[in-house]
């Protein structure tokens, strides 16, 4: 039987406790000079105080609350998302261990003309991030090279690093194996290929305009020597294979499983690992997703408790006062996910927290779920790629050896700025929506 839950700010307190622990630990550790301060407290541990508060604060017996919690943990969308995380992790690690990332990086660097260093890095970072599903991995792979090229060429290092960040976030936003894409599509109940088609209409023009700006303003004073880097085109194929199958609409479980098999076959053929090593690499990929796997389960459970206690309805009633229709509903989602990412410094966490709320807004105001998934993913990536205490920024700057500060880079994050403008324009452009 469906009954309308009365909205209550009290129902939102456990989520605020979670965000407070997560954000507060980062601020305290950062003030103590701890590196990657916002990533020291594991998110699944940070959410636990929120769960405890929910059990203590909300009405009902322990048994009733525990059943509600387990219903949220075991929701089909949550379990589906968790399995996709495991397969995505397996594909990423197997492909990396057989040399796929190195070959992809070196292939791009070999064929990028020296006077197009900044735009070239944007393109390579975008491809690697799209193929591997991780902006951090793209930055780790390319940042040392980017710093070296900037030093040798005379191109502004902040500009080169901003180009790298833009490309990495472009791919993170679009990749079908990215945590953010998985979370956004599963919480909104849409297919990855459908979200991609909406997303690419916005991201591609923003990327093209960014490339033009980088070509004009990113010319080196001294052209460095062209390098030839060792690569194996065969080892790039799994990424192209997975991307192609995804775009033509093959089931994501089939795509990722096939990608793991193809990468494994290539690695075995070239002797990059044994059969036993192959199995271990798959498992390493699974375990690498442990944090986000556990966080998704626990967040699903907490969200179920918060929803039953009226927390989501309170947010809905608060937002409704400012929502006039489909367009303002999408802007409300954008604001929510942006502020949450700025608070927790993790774009996937921001989407997981706001996904159920965005789904309710989408259903109530008739927002196309493909658009709501794109809005969540885009604005979480914009925020994550710009905050000075995000993992991407901190890792990238660690390779610069203190020569650049985040505030040198932030004004040059043209892709994020252009993407924000284009997305807002896309939201308000459709005359059929009000």
TrEMBL record:
Q: What is this protein called?
A: Na+/H+ antiporter NhaC-like C-terminal domain-containing protein
Tell me, in one coarse class, where this protein mainly resides: membrane
* Key words of the record: Antiport, Cell membrane, Membrane, Transmembrane, Transmembrane helix, Transport
Residue ranges constituting the Na+/H+ antiporter NhaC-like C-terminal domain according to the UniProt record: 44-218, 235-429
Q: Where in the cell is it found?
A: Cell membrane
Which InterPro entries does the record cross-reference, listed alphabetically? Answer: Na/H_Antiport_NhaC-like_C, NhaC_Na-H+_Antiporter
One annotated GO molecular function is: antiporter activity
Provide GO CC annotations from the record: plasma membrane
Give the family per the record. Belongs to the NhaC Na(+)/H(+) (TC 2.A.35) antiporter family.
Q: Which organism is it from?
A: Cetobacterium somerae ATCC BAA-474
Q: What is its membrane topology?
A: Multi-pass membrane protein
Pfam families in UniProt: Na_H_antiporter (PF03553)
Q: What residues form the membrane-spanning segments?
A: 12-29, 36-58, 78-95, 116-143, 198-218, 238-271, 292-311, 331-353, 412-429
Give the lineage.
Bacteria, Fusobacteriati, Fusobacteriota, Fusobacteriia, Fusobacteriales
């Amino acid at each position: 039987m469906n009954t309308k839950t009365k909205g209550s700010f009290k129902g939102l307190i456990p989520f605020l406790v979670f965000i407070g622990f997560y954000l507060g630990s980062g601020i305290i550790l950062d003030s103590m000079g701890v590196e990657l301060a916002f990533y020291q407290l594991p998110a699944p541990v940070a959410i636990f105080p929120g769960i405890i508060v929910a059990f203590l604060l909300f009405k009902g017996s322990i048994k009733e609350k525990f059943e509600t919690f387990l219903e949220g943990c075991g929701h089909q969308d949550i379990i589906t998302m968790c399995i996709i995380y495991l397969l995505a992790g397996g594909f990423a690690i197997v492909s990396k261990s057989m040399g796929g990332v190195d070959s992809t990086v070196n292939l791009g660097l070999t064929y990028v003309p020296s006077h197009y260093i900044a735009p070239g890095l944007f393109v390579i970072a975008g491809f690697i991030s799209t193929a591997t599903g991780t902006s951090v991995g793209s930055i780790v792979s390319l940042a040392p090279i980017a710093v070296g090229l900037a030093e040798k060429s005379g191109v502004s290092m902040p500009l080169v690093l901003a180009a790298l960040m833009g490309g990495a976030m472009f791919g993170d936003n679009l990749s079908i194996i990215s945590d953010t894409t998985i979370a956004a599509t599963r919480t909104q109940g849409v297919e990855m290929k459908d979200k991609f088609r909406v997303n690419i209409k916005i991201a591609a023009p923003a990327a093209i305009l960014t490339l033009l700006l980088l070509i004009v303003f990113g010319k080196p004073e001294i052209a460095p020597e062209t390098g030839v880097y060792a690569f194996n085109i065969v080892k790039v194929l799994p990424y192209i294979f997975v991307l192609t199958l995804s775009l033509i609409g093959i089931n994501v479980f089939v795509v990722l499983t096939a990608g793991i098999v193809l990468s494994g076959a290539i690695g075995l053929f070239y002797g990059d690992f044994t059969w036993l090593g192959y199995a271990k690499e798959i498992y390493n990929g699974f375990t690498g997703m442990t944090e986000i796997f556990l966080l998704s389960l626990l967040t699903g459970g907490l969200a179920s408790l918060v929803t039953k206690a009226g927390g989501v309805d309170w947010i809905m009633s608060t937002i409704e006062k400012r929502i006039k229709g489909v367009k303002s509903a999408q802007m409300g989602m954008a604001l929510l996910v942006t502020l949450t990412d700025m608070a927790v410094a993790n774009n996937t966490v921001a989407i997981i927290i706001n996904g159920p709320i965005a789904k309710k807004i989408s259903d109530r105001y008739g927002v196309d779920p493909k658009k709501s998934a794109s809005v969540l993913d885009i604005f979480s990536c914009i925020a994550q790629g710009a905050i000075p205490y995000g993992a991407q920024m901190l890792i990238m700057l660690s390779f610069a050896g203190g020569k650049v500060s985040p505030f040198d880079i932030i004004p040059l994050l043209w892709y994020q700025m252009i993407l924000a403008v284009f997305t807002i324009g896309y939201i308000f452009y459709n005359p059929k929506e009000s």
